[in-house]
Amino acid sequence: MQWTDRIRQVKIFLVVAAIFIAVASLLVSRSLTGDLAQQERSRMQVWAEAMKSLSDADENTDLSLVLKVLDENNTIPVVVLDSEGIVTEYRNIEIKADNVRDSISFVTEQALHLKASGQVIRISLSNNHNDYIDVCYDDSLMLKRIAIYPYVQLGVVMLFVVVAIFALLTSKRAEQNKVWVGLSKETAHQLGTPISSLMAWTTILKETYPDDELLPEMDKDVKRLQLIADRFSKIGSVPEPVPSSLNEVLHHVADYMDRRTSRKIEMITDLPVDDVVIKVNASLFEWVIENLCKNAVDAMGGESGRITLHLEETDQRAIVEVIDTGKGIKKKDIRNVFRPGFTTKKRGWGLGLSLAKRIVEEYHHGRIFVKSSEIGKGSVFRIELRKG
């Protein structure tokens, strides 16, 4: 749980950091954009005054400064309209037209658009209010880039966060896989020697006490230990699925659990008449069902109850449901039950359901999930396996 909580804290930190960077970037960018827009408007006011001076000039007027001001505007798109709306001058406009007539129409349309959006400075040329020019201007390319930049930066930051979280989860999953594989193989190795000894002792006991009724059950348990060791040894390698009868698998589980659980708990099998045959690794899939049944037994807390193994078949998949009448799962815990390390038991590693999920989804390409659960009434775990 500590590792899981740490991962959650890191993800929260990354998201909060990304939001902080994005908000700070947007605020700074808006401030810079506002300052630059104000500077450009001031420059256009000076440029408009220069246009007025050029219009009012006579042969004795020194126009060197006026022309210098007009020529220095190489970045801000500008269109000058007279009082009748006719274009008299334009600069830094990217024209998309094939001929002169279309060019004038395009520039006029651009000017009217800028004028309608309020990006215009009106300069009176005389005391007559009907004699004026409208200097229509657009934002410079630099201003537009600065305005767009924070959104690009936001996208980059979010992409970084997604990649970082994905890398973190991948690293965590790889580390968990190594731990599980190492632990499983070491467990299988450690079980090998005592199981071999037990098999030898049961053989001797059979020869010494051939009529003892308990020896067949002891032999079953020893073989069960051997099967468990074999399952652990297969963790980490990809098992080869073969056509198997799910009816038979569920019968084995029900028989095994019925003999080794309290008399208060009733094991029920709800299986179709015809065998449901599908490609699975029967040993590992049987372990998954056993694990769900053992969890169901724990959920009953020593009280009377019922566990039902339900099997049905559709055209595309086989469906197995493990239904219990236990204490149920809290809604807030349902999404966490398959998370490695999560457990509600006082004693437990929280690996059983996560391993079951891995066996179903990675080895058999199926789905396992909590179909429903109600506090005090029980839970339904559902497994869906694709055919073919």
UniProtKB/TrEMBL annotation:
SUPFAM superfamilies in the cross-refs: ATPase domain of HSP90 chaperone/DNA topoisomerase II/histidine kinase (SSF55874)
Record-level GO BP terms: phosphorelay signal transduction system
Annotated EC: 2.7.13.3
Keyword annotations of the record: ATP-binding, Kinase, Membrane, Nucleotide-binding, Phosphoprotein, Transferase, Transmembrane, Transmembrane helix, Two-component regulatory system
Catalytic activity: ATP + protein L-histidine = ADP + protein N-phospho-L-histidine
Gene Ontology MF annotations: ATP binding; protein histidine kinase activity
Transmembrane domains' residue ranges: 12-32, 148-169
Enzyme class: transferase
PROSITE patterns: HIS_KIN (PS50109)
Residues annotated as domain Histidine kinase: 186-388
Domain of life: Bacteria
Listed SMART domains: HATPase_c (SM00387)
PANTHER family: PEROXIDE STRESS-ACTIVATED HISTIDINE KINASE MAK3, SENSOR HISTIDINE KINASE
Protein name as catalogued: histidine kinase
